[in-house]
Amino acid sequence: MLGTVILAFILIWFGLSFVIAGLIYGVVELTALGAICSLIPLPFLILLHRPKLIHVRLATPDKSGKNHHPLPEGGSLKTPERTSFQRFVITDDSVLDLPPLTQVWGAFIAILVFGLMLSIPLLLSLLSGDEDLLGVVYLLSFIPVLLLSIAAFSIPVFAWWATSSKIIGLPTKRRDAEAWMIAGMASALPALIVNSFLFPLILPSGLSDSTEMALTAAISAPIGEEIFKLLAVCLFLSSIRNPKKGFQVGFTVGLGFALIENLAYILGSAFGGAPSMTLTALMRGIGSIPAHGLWTGISGFGLGYYSKTTDADKRMKWVINRFSIKSVDFAENLGFDIDGDGDYSGFDDFRPTFEEMLAKDDEGSNWKLIDKKTGGEIDAPGVRTRDVGHSLVTSLDAAKLGTDAGFSILPAKNVMGCLSIAIGGHAFWNGTLVSVEKLGDLVGLGWGGVFLLNMAWVSILIIVLLILARGIFRGVRSLPAN
Fold this sequence. Notes:
Distance between the termini: 29 Å
Number of domains: 3
Radius of gyration: 27 Å
Strand content: 5-15%
Number of strands: 2
């Protein structure tokens, strides 16, 4: 995933955005450079995300079978009784296994501590007023700070990912989680186009650069980013059955967006030395990153309600199924044996109607409540099945679901309401930060005063955000997963 982020960053920031800028401003060299930067990451992205397959070998008791079965890599498999031997290649559907919370948050804290240690020599040389000493210290610390920033941009994102997965309690396939996060990264491109190229065109002429940036942060960024992140969540509508799943997908899409954005902020701050990088990592790690995840999670929550009440997920599955069948028919009509049956008759398997697919989806899953130590089925006293839903949890976690009461919040039950909350929350965050900075300048606080005022307001925003996030996590966790 880290490789994906770096390649996607090159593709978006130095590739496609340069191509668009070159076309808009008529600079051929910029367009050519963007085209080169767009092509270079593509083969590596394809290599990183080629389908992951598992080789399965199945030996089943069969009186007419054999006791020895040759293996393709050499040697043979011996079974105590006669068996028939089959081999399959299947897609890797393993469940995402994130590290324990103490490990990822511990790593983030270690980065901050190391960053503070690197900051001390730079701050001392700055206070001494010796510019030559300051330059030497900066050069010596630049490489460690740059390496530190590479870790700082990603670890808090994965820490919040692990935290949300633990609290919500939904099992997630690794390939699904990667797809959600990559969709969040991709949504950064149209948001960048709107913020950098389209929104400035509708602003009145004569505005200062600072005013234009403030309006972009308070208006364009919240509206554009939240809409495009919601559209990224919509790509997975066929797998979103309920609000709980919608929140999970939305939160992960938001973190994918935050990964790309965080890389830009952290790399930029690294040129300011260890103090700048450490402060940026702290503020974004506990503030902006969960904010992106939370706003998009709320939008996904509304999409989940829409899916649950309209069977939108099942209709989307049926549309995708029909499109796949028609694609096979079209390809075989052109003379390509897609299904490998030796003829060109098109798709020969069962073609379900929407009603038949709906009935198949309604059969449900067979997840059970399991004991963490024995792995056996168990009934947790005081926990009803509908409260646990289809979550793969231990009996201890299930009992906690029934007893862990407290402050909880559930967002609106429609898409537009949830999107409005996401845009409003994002706009309030960005708008107040810009306003506080402008207020400090107006009252003449100076650089130090503006910085302290800004940090105080950021701290208040982060505390309120974490309280809201905890309440929403609890509310979402209480919902059934079916």
